[in-house]
Structures are given as structure tokens and as C-alpha cells.
Amino acid sequence: MELVKLFLSFFKTGAFSFGGGYAMIPLLQSELVVKNGWVSGTEFMDIVTISQMTPGPIAINAATFVGYRAQGVIGSVVATIGVVMPSFIIMSILYYIITKYKDSRLIDDLINGVKPVVIALIASAGITTAMPIITSVKSILIGILVYYLVYIRKVDSILSIVIAGVLGVILF
């Protein structure tokens, strides 16, 4: 029964999280921390942090980790398939529709209607993720510095993560 629960939780996350990894964070947090208690809030933030430093999308890394913790290797496989399957199905259907109706005004309007939702989900993920992390003036300053480096100075995000990590070691 736990395997079914894992699959359905991650399937739901994969099916209803448009906009990629950052947009998935609020739904992942709700499913993993609040509803099912598979990880604590702190562990969830660790998963998000580690997912940013390892190859692969946040949702797949989270599914693999949480699935393993809940049910071992088979749990990892079930959770990972659950989170990937909706995207595979949706993208296959969308590819068919978009290629068939590529000149349709309705398709353009639909895509334009979904864009603001994606922006709102990403903003929500940013706020949800930031709240437990903002514990001191030092963490706020590191966040502002990294924003400045990435957005204004166009510094590579990997280098920015390294800089933030070094600053964390020095300041904390």
C-alpha cells in the first residue's frame, strides 16, 4: 500500500506542477512534508539544496531519495516513475496536438494563458523556499549577493553556488 501511496503522490506532483522544478517545490513540500510526513521540513530543504548541486531535476532527485527512504530501492523506482510518467504522457499528447494544429490561434492563446500561472508557481516556490532559510541577516545578505551576481553581473549559477557555500562556511 505504501508503494501505491508513493506512486500516487509523485504522480500527482508530476501531473499538476507546470513550470519545472521550482514550480514543483510547493506541491512536493505539501505531499512529502505535510500530508505524508516522509521527510521533515528541514530535510525537505536539504533535498532541494542537494538537488541543486547534483545532476537531474529536483522532482526526480526528491522522488529517488524519498522513495528510497520510505521503501528502499523499489520505492525509489516507483516514486521516480510516478513523477516522470505524467510529463511523458502530457508531452506526448501535446506534441501530437501542437504539431497537428501548429497554426491555430487557440493553441497560441492557451500557451499565453498558462505562462502567468508558471510565473506565479515559481514565485510561490521562491517564497516558500526562502521563508525557512531566512534565519539571519547573514543568510539574507548571501541571498542578495547571489541575486546580484546571477541577475545583474551574469555570473554562472554554479560559480554562485560555490561562492555562497564558501561564504556559508566562513560566516556560519
Write a structural description:
It is a single chain. This protein has 7 helices and no strands. The protein is an all-alpha fold. The model has no long low-confidence stretch (mean pLDDT 87). The protein folds into 2 domains: 2-131, no CATH class; 134-172. Helix 1 packs across helix 4 (58-100), helix 2 packs across helix 5 and helix 3 (41-53) crosses helix 4.
Quick overview of this protein structure:
With 172 residues, the protein is mainly alpha-helical. It is 85% helix and 0% strand. It has helices at 2-16, 21-35, 41-53, 58-100, 105-133, 137-152, 157-171.
Give me the secondary-structure category.
mainly alpha
Multimeric organization? single chain
Number of domains: 2
Beta fraction? under 5%
Secondary-structure blueprint:
Elements (H helix, E strand, L loop, with lengths): L1 H15 L4 H15 L5 H13 L4 H43 L4 H29 L3 H16 L4 H15 L1
Key traits:
172 residues, mainly alpha, 7 helices, globular
